[in-house]
């Protein structure tokens, strides 16, 4: 059939998208089973734990969700006997759930926990206590017998700080613990140290690092970890004995093994018993490689190209999760000895007739190359009238220190199957292209990111791939800031969708949470010295320059970017009569989790673009 772009009939409904790809939240070998965390959109985004036997290990209403550092992570773990340990989202306490029995609390009310790790019969965690001033975080060991359920003092503190900590790891002999630590003055990708302490607290040492990540012991005296002194996060090896030898790189590559430490459960590599290492390597797309004891790396035949995580190893078997260019999000088990790859959950093949394969593209920008992934309109049953160019949505990821990779996405197929192209941009400041690309944004948030998304959009139009009059921009959180900032700049985008986006930098600095309290120092400048820059850069200051339709979406319980940010822009647009919509989703936080919210958000956005770009969208299949 012939129909205008944006009006094509599509088999993808918003309800299907809400249920299509549950988020995988860690995985472990447990006895003879494989367990993994999985979001349940139909239950408000609750995180459950499932087993390869088909059983649901963690029943409703329990919700394995941490809020440490606000973004959480590492909210569950298990021992080999089938005991589950998890942080419940309702009270942030740690619970123990035996293989047959109900959850029992292991920690007292008050503090929050995350980054759980069960090793050698011991339970390590990151504890965050927001009750004292200043707030404190600690690497702790939690008694698994329940003796700390009513007494915080029974939780043994390994190291405590007013800064931040992550990634506890116990040495094979149980005598030492390693972890990553950084101060409130920095973000972890700017400066983070590797610490090692004896379990009894008698001694501690620090390894000279720049932006350390994920320590893993390979012997009682030797550690692997990630760092980027050369400009790329690569593996490092260091001895922590009396020799005090300097760290040495392991198979350095022009790719990143590592990324922004936003959540506590990230795992970018795992050492194997034979001395080899399985690691993620990111240069735009993700790849998974096996690094031999000779330092040579061999890429593994795994369908993952985005969001890759090396979740667990046992013998020659490796659990990896992520999504791929031709498959949806899932979890796979690799047997390196047998050379097999088995799908554990998810990972369904994408229909190439309906789901476009991401095309990596690079555009020239004023600050250097701009990397992106293009998803063109794709529908085997429809075509546009001759000479018509498609509307496009330029997607802007949050962070801004984050990254997107090309992957098969039914969420994007929701747009492309209707004749709306998607361009996913890794603007300057994104991870996955090395430190120099990431630091392009230093002091220039609201400038470089805006220049880059504009360059990408114009490059797409100049190539004859998009209708220059019908390019929208959509982003959440820091991506929402770039959306609003680009609309203030004017001249490129015909509409904007801001999801819980930042509108006023001074308001953000005053209201945001501890983890990002000093983030703006590096992105913009320190206060009060840079206050004039904060005012000048903020979209709210120049809201009178926005002259295209805007959709604002916001969670009522968002503590990272509170509703006041979206509401300030709403009020400024309303005062000038600029077409806009403001949708507040009750009970949602920073990011939408509930299926009913995802459905309402997608359908609202599609209708909004139809009105803005004069096409009649079809919501149903």
From TrEMBL:
Residues 412-614 form the Peptidase S9 prolyl oligopeptidase catalytic domain. Gene3D superfamilies: alpha/beta hydrolase, TolB, C-terminal domain. GO terms for biological process: proteolysis. One of its GO terms (molecular function) is serine-type peptidase activity. This is S9 family peptidase. It comes from Microbacterium esteraromaticum. It comes from the Bacteria. InterPro entries: 6-blade_b-propeller_TolB-like, AB_hydrolase_fold, Peptidase_S9_cat, Xaa-Pro_dipeptidyl-ppase/CocE.
């Amino acid at each position: 059939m012939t129909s205008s772009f944006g009006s094509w009939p599509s088999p993808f409904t918003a309800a299907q998208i809400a249920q299509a790809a549950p988020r995988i939240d860690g995985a472990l070998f447990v006895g003879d089973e494989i367990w993994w965390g999985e979001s349940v959109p139909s239950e408000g985004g609750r995180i459950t734990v499932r087993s390869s036997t088909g059983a649901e290990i963690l029943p409703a209403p329990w919700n394995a969700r941490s809020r440490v550092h606000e973004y959480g992570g590492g909210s569950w773990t298990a021992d080999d006997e089938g005991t589950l340990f998890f942080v419940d989202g309702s009270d942030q306490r740690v619970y123990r759930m035996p293989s047959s029995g109900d959850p029992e609390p292991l920690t007292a009310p008050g503090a929050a926990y995350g980054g759980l790790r069960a090793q050698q019969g011991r339970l390590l965690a990151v504890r965050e206590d927001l009750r004292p001033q200043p707030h404190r975080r600690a690497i702790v060991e939690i008694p698994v017998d329940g003796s700390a359920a009513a007494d915080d003092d029974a939780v043994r503190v390994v190291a405590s700080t007013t800064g931040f900590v992550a990634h506890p790891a116990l040495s094979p002999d149980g005598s030492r613990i390693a972890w990553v630590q950084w101060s409130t003055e920095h973000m972890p990708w700017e400066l983070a140290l590797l610490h090692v302490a004896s379990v009894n607290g008698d001694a501690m040492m620090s390894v000279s690092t720049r932006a350390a990540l994920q320590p893993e012991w390979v012997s009682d005296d030797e550690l692997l970890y990630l760092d980027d002194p050369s400009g790329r996060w690569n593996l490092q090896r260091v001895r922590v004995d009396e020799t005090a030898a300097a760290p040495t790189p392991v198979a350095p590559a022009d790719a990143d093994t590592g990324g922004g430490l936003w959540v506590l459960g990230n795992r970018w590599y795992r050492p194997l018993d034979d001395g080899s290492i399985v690691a993620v390597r990111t240069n735009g797309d993700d790849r998974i490689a096996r690094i031999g004891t000779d330092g040579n790396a061999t890429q593994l035949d795994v369908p993952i190209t985005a969001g890759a995580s090396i979740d667990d190893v046992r013998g020659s078997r490796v659990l990896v999760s992520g999504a791929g260019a031709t498959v949806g999000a899932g979890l796979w088990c690799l047997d390196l000895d047998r050379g097999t790859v088995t799908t554990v959950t998810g990972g369904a093949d994408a229909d190439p007739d309906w789901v476009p394969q991401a095309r990596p593209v690079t555009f020239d920008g004023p600050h250097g190359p701009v990397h992106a992934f293009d998803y063109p309109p794709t529908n085997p049953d429809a075509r546009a009238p001759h000479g018509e160019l498609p509307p496009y949505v330029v997607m802007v990821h949050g962070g801004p220190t984050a990254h997107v990779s090309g992957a098969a996405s039914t969420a994007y197929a929701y747009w492309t199957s209707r004749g709306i192209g998607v361009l996913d941009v890794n603007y300057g400041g994104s991870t996955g292209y090395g430190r120099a690309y990431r630091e392009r944004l230093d002091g220039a948030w609201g400038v470089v990111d805006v220049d880059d998304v504009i360059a990408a959009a114009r490059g797409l139009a100049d190539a004859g791939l998009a209708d220059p009059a019908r390019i929208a921009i959509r982003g959440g959180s820091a991506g929402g800031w770039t959306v609003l900032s680009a609309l203030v700049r004017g001249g490129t985008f015909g509409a904007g969708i801001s999801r819980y986006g930042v509108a006023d930098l001074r308001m953000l600095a005053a209201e945001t949470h501890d983890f990002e309290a000093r983030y703006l120092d590096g992105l913009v400048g320190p206060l009060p010295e840079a206050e004039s820059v904060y005012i000048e850069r903020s979209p709210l200051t120049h809201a009178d320059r926005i002259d295209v339709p805007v959709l604002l979406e916001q969670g009522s319980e968002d503590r990272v970017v509170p509703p006041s940010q979206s509401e300030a822009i709403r009020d400024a647009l309303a005062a000038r009569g600029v077409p806009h919509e403001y949708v507040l989703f009750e009970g949602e936080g920073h990011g939408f989790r509930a299926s009913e919210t995802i459905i309402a958000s997608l359908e609202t956005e599609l209708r909004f673009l139809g009105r803005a770009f004069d096409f009649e969208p079809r919501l149903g299949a």
